Amino acid sequence: MKVYLDNNATTKIDPLVKVKMQPFFEELYGNPNSLHQYGMDVRPALNVALGEMYDALNAPDADDILITSCATESNNTVLKGIFFKHILKNPEKNHIVTTAVEHPSMQDTLLYLSDYGVDVTYVDVDKNGGISAEAIKAAVTDKTILISMMWANNETGMIFPIEEVSSFAKEKDILFHTDAVQAIGKLKVDLSAVNIDYLTFSAHKFHGPKGIGGLYVKKGKQLPNLLHGGEQMGGKRAGTLNVAYIVGMGLAMKQAANHVEKINIDVRRLRDKLEDALIKISDTIVVGPRALRTPNTILISLRGIEGESMLWDLNKSGIAASTGSACASESLEANPVMNAIGEDPELAHTAMRLSLSRFTTEKEIDYTIDAFTAAAERLRSISSTYAYTNEVG
Ligand code: PLP
Predict the structure, then answer these.
(1) The CATH fold of domain 15-258
(2) Domain 3-10+260-392, what fold?
(3) Which residue from 209, 228, 341, 382 has the highest number of Cβ atoms inside 10 Å of its Cβ?
(4) Tens digit of pLDDT for each residue in 33-43?
């Protein structure tokens, strides 16, 4: 049996999305900016897709949704855009507040910008991997131009206090950005109910295609272009539009929004069933209270078993999980969020993430429970034999 439990890294394409995209690889290949019939033929589908995104996010028409190549580009656009538009012109306001557990596309960009005089405060997570709104507020100074905080964490699934912090940012006249990559499709994201200026998303995290993402920009909060050289997207991001992928992202986001309730019942039930079974394995911890996590995610540590050993053992049984962000998974390092939680260094090396989707089945979860439990027993017995051999030898 094959079981895919790495849905926070990427998801499979919703079959309906694939069918909807297909004609744009065949007869509907025109450039939507062309004036001839081929161009005209694809434009309506683009408008439908954008409409689906505005509806799914409940974003007012006056606001912008920029199409980007991925969430990494969206995060770069926000940070570099704010640098060019605000910090470069007024270095007095050069301070950004963020969390210690943002995705590398945020952390690395902030590190890069710090060489150009940007001052960054990274607010630590608590022992559950959560962020307190108070800690964010306390980090703000009169030099703060931006608060950026992910909506939900990719490793733990912990949901961050977006509503409270975005309202605080608005009161203080500070820009607010959220990386909502792990929230869309798992949580209700309603942009008319929160004070968000910029929101990042990525289609491949909600059963759309890879290589396409977006950035919501509130009216009046426009950022400078990072890509120059064309009038696409109203001149806000140059480059020929990837119609097939935009169409796919529109439907995928509509489907994601329509399935949020189902995910919060059905996927949550399967996640809880899996977690209830795995937590019975001795010396095991799961990070963060369930009610504060996205309904699909478990970050688990089994004392004495390296995350990578467990990963390879499960892989042999056809189960795909992860030890950390896919962007860092080749480095065999400690899990960065477990590291940030920092209670016990061993936990960072034994951490594994299991993330479900609305396509995960009960059979797959039952199979995973058995395979995971057997793998844990096997690896613990190998490590105790090893410890014994070392002692006597
Ligand atoms: N932000 C978060 C929270 C993520 O989990 C990811 C992907 O793992 C990204 C950003 C980057 O997404 P993309 O692959 O679209 O660049």
Answers:
(1) Aspartate Aminotransferase; domain 2 (3.40.640)
(2) Aspartate Aminotransferase, domain 1 (3.90.1150)
(3) 341
(4) 999 999 999 99
